[in-house]
Amino acid sequence: MSFDAAVYQYSHLTVDHQRHQVDAALTAGRIATLGARYIPRLEQRAAALLGRAEAIAVDSGSSGLVLALRGLGVRPGQEVIIPEVGWVSMGAAAAALGAGVRVAAVTETLTPTWEQIAPLITPATGAVILAHLRGRPAPDTPRIAAELSARGIPLVEDCAQAWGVTAAGRPAGAWGQAAVLSTNTYKVIATGEGGLVLADEPRMLGFMRAVAGDTRQPTPQAVWRGKSRMNELTAALALPQLDFLPTLLDSLRALQQHVVSALATVEGITGLAPATAEDTSQSNGSLVGMWLPTATLAEQAADALFRAGFGCWWPGPGDLHTAAAWPVQPEQPVVDVRRYLDVQIPWLPAGEHAAFAHQLAATLTAALKESPC
After folding, report:
1. CATH code matching the domain that covers 13-238, chosen among 1.10.260.40, 3.40.50.2300, 3.40.640.10, 1.20.1420.20
2. Does pTM top 0.70 for this prediction?
């Protein structure tokens, strides 16, 4: 059975509204970053979504990470702790400022707990980056935030994959001194490239605006400034998707729950994420992750899913989301992340949810039965 109505690129669902806003911007000739119409709206909406004082629209989530660390004063001689799984630009942001990088091992949540972070903290620690991955919150966020706050160490939340995610009752991105969102093509809100960096402290926000390229923003002393601001057309693409986000998440979570229930019956899967209704309510519904007994089984299952037309991700060799492909690795890994894979949840009419989940489970069941492992 094929699911022709399935939409994996969620931005397609609002394409008419996006086109209207882009046409309006082009017709009015208002495409500059300064004096823009849509950029301030997007910044205000994103700040409200995460409960932050302000957001600054930038040209990528990667740029947002650099701005956040620079705004926090990270400098040469310091170290930044990052998780073992997440996009390579976390470490690149620290390296760009001359800081060292230490990598915290992740658990089966794909995120570290305080137990993995604490041994890496030294007097040189300038910041910790915590990523909320695969549309789910990092479960130990409240404790990590509290422990770092008690030590005066700033926390940056990488929320590139976490639009609409909540962590312990608060939006992912509301716990640290700064947070970063992404509107890259593969994100829930997708504009090709783009991002936002969010914070609360006025001086930090003013500094980040200045060095990101806002020539109207003064600084206490002269600093080197660059250009990493979002353009007006990108903001015009993002806003209709942000308007549609609650409706999209409701649909994704509904199908996600069908998939979780179906996969719970598949022999050979040793763990699911999300695993409970509460987990589903905290996620944005875009993915269902699973753990298999071996990396070989996970690779074979991912191949079977891909050949059957399902969107999936397996963190295999060379994947830049994993520390194995970075210059620095964790000292003591906790899990083999190659045993993990996940399936993307498409937008699909509600009447097709059960059939989609059933076919997905059947595909995995057949793949795991055929495996010689």
Report:
1. 3.40.640.10
2. yes
Q: Count CA atoms within 13 Å of residue 22 on its CB side.
A: 12
Domain extents in the chain: 13-238, 244-370
Angle between helices 61-71 and 89-96 (to 10 degrees): 40
What backbone torsions phi and psi does residue 216 show, to the nearest 5 degrees? -80, -15
Distance of CA 362 to the CA centre of its chain: 29
CA distance 115 to 356: 39
Query: What tens digit of pLDDT does each residue of 329-347 get?
Result: 999 999 999 999 999 999 9
60-69 pLDDT tens trace: 999 999 999 9
**CA 24 to the chain's CA centroid:** 30
Give the phi and the psi of residue 49 in degrees, each rounded to 5. -60, -40
For residue 372, pLDDT over 70 is answered with no
Average pLDDT value for residue range 127-151:
98
Amino acid of residue 44: Q
Q: Which CATH architecture has domain 244-370?
A: Alpha-Beta Complex (3.90)
> What does the pLDDT average to over 354-361?
97
